[in-house]
TrEMBL record:
NCBIfam families: tRNA epoxyqueuosine(34) reductase QueG (TIGR00276). It comes from Pedobacter heparinus (strain ATCC 13125 / DSM 2366 / CIP 104194 / JCM 7457 / NBRC 12017 / NCIMB 9290 / NRRL B-14731 / HIM 762-3). Pathway: tRNA modification; tRNA-queuosine biosynthesis. Cob(II)alamin binds at residues 61, 133, 154, 157, 168, 216, 241-242. Residues 179-207 form the 4Fe-4S ferredoxin-type domain. Its EC number is 1.17.99.6. HAMAP family: QueG. The active site is at residue 133. TRNA binds at residues 223, 299. This is Epoxyqueuosine reductase. Binds 2 [4Fe-4S] clusters per monomer. It comes from the Bacteria.
Length: 312
């Protein structure tokens, strides 16, 4: 006979898959002892650049029990975003695959709340919070602890069966569950394709990223003008960057997602280089109405387009 923790865990994982999540793993809510000195050193070396929010809530980033009172479990989930189609004009400025469809924050939050409601209906009064990339939670560390995959040299979480083109999300709950074995193996081996392919040398060494050099940071997080040192190195990316994932051998296992909300805007896929260079604010608002690209705003996107145009 299954004990409650085991039975509840099986229920939760089955419902997570029904809701469209790709993987679900569970770890004990505890202090992230291994990650603490790494995060402190990364911040001390100013590798986070203008992302000042990374300095906030240092203790909470390392201990989920400070985020959710009496929390017992961290439920880690992945949601595939690998698209079946990509931008049609090979010369057009590029957008990271994760931003082709609707803003993932909205899509995933909705699924997380459905899962949390299911837990309350099936199990009882459970306190918990949902997290998607916008709170002090070290997603990759928790996914690794929950047995979903390992952290690659490009600092992305990689799964043997599905690669790395997926979002990470968490439910932190005050419910005792059955915990998965942490992922301890490293399947990158001697491969350095991600390091070698990065045109801005943002991967300083395996697992250490200088965000200030990362194309994703430069096109999204950076609010001022892009430094001329990066001229000719942006590889035509205007929002985000997929290079270190595109070259990763494990992403040969990436399969197209089945999430309707992530279906790409056809107009986005069809736009040619000239269309992007002449984009108006009205067109921007229409194409990116519910998109993560709104984060960079019209001003930021046109800044990026102008920069890569002058670099070519």
């Amino acid at each position: 006979m299954l004990n409650n923790a085991s039975r509840y865990s099986k229920l939760i994982k089955a419902e997570a898959l029904r809701l469209g999540f790709m993987q679900c793993g569970i770890a004990k809510a505890d202090f992230l002892e291994e990650e603490a000195p790494k995060l402190e050193k990364w911040l001390h070396n100013n590798h986070h650049g203008q992302m000042a929010y990374m300095e906030n809530h240092f203790d909470k980033r390392l201990d989920p029990r400070l985020l959710v009172e009496d929390s017992r479990s961290v439920i880690s989930l992945t949601l595939n975003y690998f698209p079946a189609e990509q931008q049609q004009d090979p010369d057009a400025p590029k957008i990271s695959k994760y931003a082709y469809g609707m803003d993932y924050h909205q899509v995933i939050k909705d699924k997380l709340y459905q899962l949390l409601n299911f837990i309350r209906e099936e199990i009882g009064e459970v306190a918990g919070r949902a997290f998607v990339d916008s709170a002090p939670v070290l997603d990759r560390a928790w996914a690794k602890r929950a047995g979903i995959g390992w952290i690659g040299k490009n600092s992305n979480l990689i799964n043997k069966k599905s690669g790395s083109f997926f979002f990470l999300a968490e439910l932190i709950v005050d419910l005792e569950l059955e915990y998965d074995q942490p992922f301890t193996a490293d399947h990158c081996g001697t491969c350095t394709k991600c390091i070698d392919a990065c045109p801005t040398d943002a991967i300083l060494s395996p697992f250490i990223i200088d965000a200030k050099k990362c194309i994703s940071y430069l096109t999204i997080e950076l609010k001022e003008e892009i430094d001329q040192d990066f001229k000719g190195k942006m590889d035509n990316w205007m929002f985000g960057c997929d290079i270190c994932q595109d070259v990763c051998p494990w992403n040969r296992f990436s399969a197209p997602h089945s999430e309707p909300m992530f279906k790409p805007n056809e107009r986005l896929l069809q736009m040619k280089r000239e269309d992007w260079q002449d984009i108006t604010e009205d067109v921007f608002k229409t194409i990116f109405k519910n998109s993560a690209v709104k984060r960079t705003k019209y001003k930021g996107l046109t800044r990026n387009i102008d920069f890569i145009k002058k670099s070519s």
